[in-house]
Amino acid sequence: MENDLVKKFVHICNYLQDPNHVARFQRFCGVQGTFHDKSTKPDSGESQPDCPGLRKRVQQGGQSSDVGDFNGAAGEDTVPQVNGMQGDASEGPGRASAAADVDFDTARAKPLRRNSLTGDVGQEFLIHNKFLFYLFTFGTELGNEMFFIVFFPFLFWNIDALVSRRLIVVWAWNLFVGQSTKDMVRWSRPASPPVVKVEVFYNSEYSMPSTHAMTGTAIPFCLFMLTYGRWQYPFLFGFCVALSWSVLVCVSRVYMGMHSVLEVITGFLYSLLVLAFFQPILDRIDTFYMTGQYAPLVVVVSHVGLGLVAFSLDSWSTSRGDTAQALGTGAGAALASYVNCQLGLLLDPPLSALPLTLPTISTGLVIRSLLRFLIGVTVLLITRMVMKAVTVPFLCRVFGLPSDDVRQARQHMKIELPYRYIVYGVVGFSCVCFVPLSFRILNLA
User: Fold this and answer.
1) Among 246, 262, 264, 352, which is least packed by CB within 10 angstroms?
2) Separation of alpha carbons 222 and 228, rounded Å
3) Which residues are catalytic?
4) Measuring CA to CA, how many Å separate 169 from each of 223, 284, 444?
5) GO cellular component annotations, sorted alphabetically (predicted)?
6) Which run of H or E residues covers position 126?
7) What does the alpha-carbon distance between residue 121 and residue 113 come to, in Å, rounded to a whole number?
8) Do residues 156 and 148 touch, judged by C-beta distance below 8 A?
């Protein structure tokens, strides 16, 4: 009986991992690939000399030598797959030229950003439904760095600092758990073809589970749980917003060709598990960060220690940097929270003031909020730009490495780890402490 259940579970996993489901969904949404004939050859799974850190997956007898049975096999006639890109054996009479299918309502497009590891610009594809393309592009951006640079500060400066602080804690730990799991499971991206790579920025990372699905689930539902009862709004409204946000991000990852259905579902459920663990202790963590005698030491040691663990799981990849980036931001925000509390800055409203109500929307309120947001984000972006420009050359000089090739230099753990912590630790600290202090000076608090 148990063996039958296990076999059935494995069968369901195989079914949900099939990249043909992703390809069918993309075609249903109006995405059409323009796959060209390209020669491929079996590889050894080692890094290419001209693409350091590029991990390969080799299909051997229908099974990957690196990731097991669920590694994006596109069917029985598989060919060597490199980081989710699978070569065509031939163009074939059944594969008509995509150019012949272009009509008046069709737009040609390429991925918006290059591959973060290899610099690959991706392959051109056709969009037959522009609305869905823009919708899911927006959805996938809800899990990217720039969104969090905008979202967390806006929430902190204009709405509720307590909620923003705790969301950053959940976000950082959620990313650490998700990215570390990726590096332990080591499944590659869905095979292309049949999948169209609408996005290639994260194509060199492992894919199980979907960390976009994890953050796209943890952030809205944690936001809902933190604000319901603290702010006055209908339960159904908050739940529907959180669910819609999560579904949009999850579905967008399938649309982009970055994840299989199984990986997205796993990311969604995994995030709920992480959230269930942290939600009961979030208040204690936040209180300790602000008032604990040894909070700064614990924050630095724990966040740096977790970064070292993440960097030791596998060879260099962008997921390592993303993990350190989240942990660095979390550490900077936690240290700033401690400083704010010790100096009596940005005190939370007393419990007697709860539940909070949204103030009356007025022209003055909107202008002040926009000014805080624009000035604050400008400060953060300038801080990030300056820190990026000076940190890598400084670290290269310290460790005796050439700094003329930044991409190559950052593939060394001793450069990438402190680089991410320094840059985003300063950004997180500035967001929570320095920028609000500047608002006081400018009479915008």
Assistant:
1) 352
2) 10
3) 212, 259
4) 12, 12, 26
5) endoplasmic reticulum membrane
6) strand 125-127
7) 7
8) no
Q: Can you give the residue ranges of every domain in the chain?
A: 1-42+53-325
Model confidence at 316, in pLDDT bands (50, 70, 90)?
low
Q: How far apart are CA 20 and CA 437, in angstroms?
A: 53
Would you say 65 and 186 are in contact if contact means Cβ atoms under 8 Å apart? no
336 vs 430: CA distance, rounded Å? 8
Q: What angle do CA 158, 426, 344 make, to 5 degrees?
A: 55
Per residue in 412-425, pLDDT tens?
777 878 888 899 99
**How far is residue 417 from each of residues 320, 340, 424, measured CA to CA in Å?**
8, 27, 11
Q: Rounded to an integer, what distance in angstroms lies between the CA atom of residue 317 and that of residue 321?
A: 7
Q: How far apart are CA 331 and CA 251, in angstroms?
A: 31
Tell me the DSSP string of 13-69. Answer: HHHHH-HHHHHHHHHHTTEEE-----------SPPBTTBTT---B-EETTEETTTBT
- Min mean pLDDT across 148-162, 163-177, 308-322 is at 308-322
Structure tokens at 77: 């006639």
pLDDT tier at 254, thresholds 50, 70, 90: very high
pLDDT confidence of residue 442: 87
What is the longest distance spanned by two Cα atoms in the chain? Answer: 73
Strands 81-82 and 85-86: antiparallel
Distance (Å, rounded) from C-alpha 268 to C-alpha 48? 34
Residue 375: which residues within 8 A CB-CB, separation 6 or more?
Answer: 435, 438, 439, 442, 444
- Sheet hosting strand 31-33, strand order edge to edge: 31-33, 125-127, 107-109
